[in-house]
Amino acid sequence: MPVTLLTGFLGAGKTALLARLLRWPALTDTAVLINEFGEVGLDHLLVEPLQGEVALLRGGCVCCSIRGDLKAALIDLHDRRRRGRVAPFRRVVIETTGLADPGPAVATLVADPVLRHAFAVGAIVTVVDAVNGARTLDSHEEAVRQVACADRLILSKTDLAEPGLAAALRARLAALNPLAPVTDLTLDDAPEAALLTDDPTGSPSARRWLCAEIPAAPHGPVGAVLIESGPVDWTRFGLWLGMLLNRHGARVLRLKGLVAVAGVDTPVVIQGVQHLVHPPRHLPAWPDGGARTRLVLIGHDLDANLLRRSYGAFTGARAFTGARPSFPGAPAAVAADR
Q1: How far apart are CA 28 and CA 303, in angstroms?
Q2: 74 neighbors 92 (Cβ within 8 angstroms)
Q3: What's the pTM?
Q4: What is the sign, positive or negative, of the torsion defined by CA atoms of 52, 58, 60, 65?
Q5: Most CB within 10 Å of its CB: which of 93, 128, 182, 230?
Q6: How many CB atoms are located within 10 Å of the residue 285 CB?
């Protein structure tokens, strides 16, 4: 059974692409494994709500969260399929964390004798942000390795990039990985299911073995900060966010969240990458029935207490304390320093 790795740096657009692709009839027999950085994230809420450990998405796909190591998750998924405890599926897609080096995942799939019996490495698909891609490649070895290991490169946000920036990045990607075709993707595109089902390089290439054998580079001081509160005034929230990115935008790699706006019944989705914040988007309903603001910031040397104090000072909203975050698997350290 082919296993496709969907990778890309923080905020590149992996989840948005995956959510669109899973609506295609050709991908209804797909199992999805989602791995979130530090187990503090909102990606599962923005794809579909998870019920327990496994969820059946509206399109018929099976969705799981990787709570242990990759091998255990794949074996458990295969066992569920064999016993008829989940809907039948013919392929697996693993959405990695934005900080993941794809090498260890490839090594697990090609070297483990148990997994080799049931699974094979399919295409490695890497999403690259056209706006921030060049700076990301300059600053983060993980991003370079994600591009170098790819069988297919997806260039996102080309409609938001400065003229000539996307072309320069495309040339740089070709220099890093001349064997991987580059597909431009904008919000108006209708991506074909072949992005996740076809391997443009055919059989496993030497590049995959190279990526699997090079030791992973250390991540450095990157961490996640979770902020939760009640409803906020939209104008005051915007002032805080603008000041935050103006002062610390170079260190904030990723911002994502659901915002409870005072006087508005439905959540507002906030997505940002470094200095770029996407237009807010309304969801029709709260995914888990809880109307509260939940923000996750991922970046270098972020002071969680300072961020929460500034958030409260600007918005006037009191951060929730005394309880664990409402995200499954959130580490105790996140709750403790709140």
Answers
A1: 42
A2: yes
A3: 0.72
A4: negative
A5: 128
A6: 10
Residue 300 neighbours by CB distance under 10 Å: 15
Tokens of 14: 């992996």
Rounded to a whole number of angstroms, the CA Rg of the chain reads 20
Q: Is 310 helix (H, G, I), strand (E, B) or coil?
A: helix
φ and ψ at residue 224, rounded to 5 degrees: -120, 140
Between the alpha carbon of residue 110 and those of residues 104, 179, 208, 279, the distances in Å are 10, 21, 10, 41
* 8 Å CB contact between 126 and 146: yes
Q: Do 308 and 227 contact (CB within 8 A), yes or no? A: yes
2-8/91-95 β-pairing: parallel
Burial track 163-176 (b if 16+ CB lie within 10 A, e otherwise) = eebbeebbeebeee
At 152, which helix (H) or strand (E)? strand 152-156
What φ, ψ does residue 208 adopt, rounded to 5°?
-65, -40
- What is the residue-level pLDDT of the chain in tens, covering all 338 positions? 888 989 999 889 888 888 778 778 888 888 888 766 444 455 655 554 444 455 544 445 555 555 557 888 888 888 888 888 877 888 888 888 888 878 778 877 877 888 888 998 888 899 999 999 999 999 888 898 888 888 889 999 888 888 789 999 999 998 888 778 888 876 555 567 677 766 554 444 555 555 555 444 444 466 778 899 999 999 999 999 999 988 887 778 778 888 999 999 999 988 787 777 878 888 888 876 578 898 888 777 888 899 999 999 999 887 665 433 333 332 222 222 22
DSSP-H helix ranges across 177-297: 194-197, 206-213, 234-248
DSSP state of 38: G
Read off the amino acid at residue 270.
I
Cβ atoms of 149 and 106 closer than 8 Å:
yes
Tell me how many degrees the CA angle 6-8-9 measures, rounded to the nearest 5.
150
